[in-house]
Design a protein that fits this description.
- The protein is of the alpha/beta class.
- It folds into two domains: 240 residues, Type I PLP-dependent aspartate aminotransferase-like (Major domain) (Aspartate Aminotransferase, domain 2), CATH 3.40.640; 133 residues, Aspartate Aminotransferase, domain 1.
- It is built from 13 helices and twelve strands.
- The strands form two sheets. It has a seven-stranded mixed beta sheet with strand order 1-7-6-5-4-2-3, with helices on both faces. The chain has a five-stranded mixed beta sheet with strand order 8-9-12-11-10, covered by helices on one side.
- The protein is globular.
- The termini are far apart.
Length: 379
């Protein structure tokens, strides 16, 4: 089954009760049993709910995995992965990391005795020198948030397998429409479903997808025992969103390419970060492991001061100044004060998150209107 078909039919079947084509919202906490322990596969909705189960099947299908898990948020999904570890274990991660992930690592799990190493993985072959006898997990994003760096998944996967270390990829920016990390050797794929998979800025959710049954059972146990699940209403909305993922992502990519080239030629713009440019440091890897370059762009304005960036985002009209990304509408953000505000300034600036940096989530509106909006804001 091809990807465009999987988004609509993958892992799905008509509802057994009445043949509903779209999985119904099973708004229930518990299920009748014919005798103690005898039921139809569902006992209590924290453990399993038919709407959430249908969504988890869809997650597995579109990522070419065998098992999917839905959580109350992307950070709840990451939290579940970290609960596979114990005090004294070490994690290799990237310097360019979503601020919420960095906060969870540095301000929550470090207190439990887990050590995190934040390293530059633009040259993935250099990861070998960071392994120790205590390394248990590699965590990466690619493309990264917000600098749009590209990390070679196959090279990292090879190193992880050599050292018998779990390898997890945050695939939120790319989505499985563009990139499928499990096929490239990753053990776990994570999504903030809030973003592109949901696609309509109306739900908060996270997902994990794996191929290995033993790993899946460990994560299912954590999901149930910790209870950070999503509800049936949000599961229904996410299922609806996935059905249009392929057509939305096509337009996101088309619009982002035109916006990136417009920004690169604008006299008020200093730097533009988008992996589709041939002079992007890892364009070759992006071209190899992705089917297109996504809908995210970051750029810095000339003058390099926060005042210039704030002026631009305040004047935008179609690009809404807001947290999050991946919805049908275009959004603009200021990472230094918004998504990455929890990262110390000195650490932000080391990786390029300057006060003048703006991040765009390019939506599916008419491209001429989007460019006109950027033009008037940059004047």
């Amino acid at each position: 089954m091809q990807f465009n078909t999987k988004t609509i039919h993958g892992g799905q079947q008509p509802d057994k009760a009445y043949g509903a084509v779209m999985p119904p919202i099973y708004q229930t906490t518990t299920y009748a049993q014919s005798a103690p322990g005898e039921h139809q596969g569902y006992e209590y909705s924290r453990a399993k709910n038919p709407t959430r189960h249908a969504l988890e099947n869809a997650f597995a299908s579109i990522e070419n995995g065998n098992f999917g898990m839905a959580f109350g948020s992307g950070l709840a999904a990451i939290d579940a992965i970290l609960k596979l570890l114990k005090p004294g274990d070490e994690v290799i991660s990237t310097t360019d990391l979503y601020g919420g992930t960095y906060r969870l690592f540095s301000q929550v799990f470090e207190d439990f005795g887990i050590r995190f190493h934040y390293v530059d993985l633009n040259d993935a072959s250099k990861i070998e020198k960071y392994f120790s006898v205590n390394t248990r997990l590699i965590w990466i994003e690619t493309p990264t948030n917000p600098m749009l760096n590209i990390i070679d998944i196959k090279t990292i996967a090879s190193a992880a397998q050599k050292h018998n270390v779990l390898f997890a990829v945050d695939n939120t920016f790319a989505t499985p429409y563009l990139q499928r990390p499990l096929d490239l050797g990753a053990d776990i794929v994570m999504h903030s479903v809030t973003k592109y998979l949901g696609g309509h800025s109306d739900l908060v959710m996270g997902a994990l997808i794996v191929k290995n049954s033993e790993l899946a059972n460990r994560l299912y146990f954590i999901q149930n025992a910790s209870g950070a699940i999503c509800g049936p209403q949000d599961s229904f909305l996410a299922l609806r969103g996935i059905k249009t993922l392929h057509v939305r992502m096509q337009r996101h990519c088309e619009n982002a390419e035109k916006v990136a080239h417009f920004l690169k030629g604008h006299p008020q713009v200093d730097m533009v970060y988008w992996p589709g440019f041939k002079d992007h440091p890892n364009h070759r890897i992006a071209k190899k492991q992705m089917d297109d370059y996504g809908g995210m762009i970051s750029f810095s304005v000339k003058g390099k001061r926060m005042e210039e960036a704030i002026s631009v985002v305040r004047k935008l009209q179609l690009f809404t100044l807001a947290e999050s990304l991946g919805g049908v509408e275009s959004l603009a953000g200021h990472p230094a004060t918004m998504t990455h505000g929890s990262v110390p300034k000195i650490e932000r600036e080391k990786i390029g998150i300057t006060d003048s940096l703006i991040r765009l989530s390019v939506g599916i509106e008419d491209i001429d209107d989007l460019i006109a909006d950027l033009e008037q804001a940059l004047q």
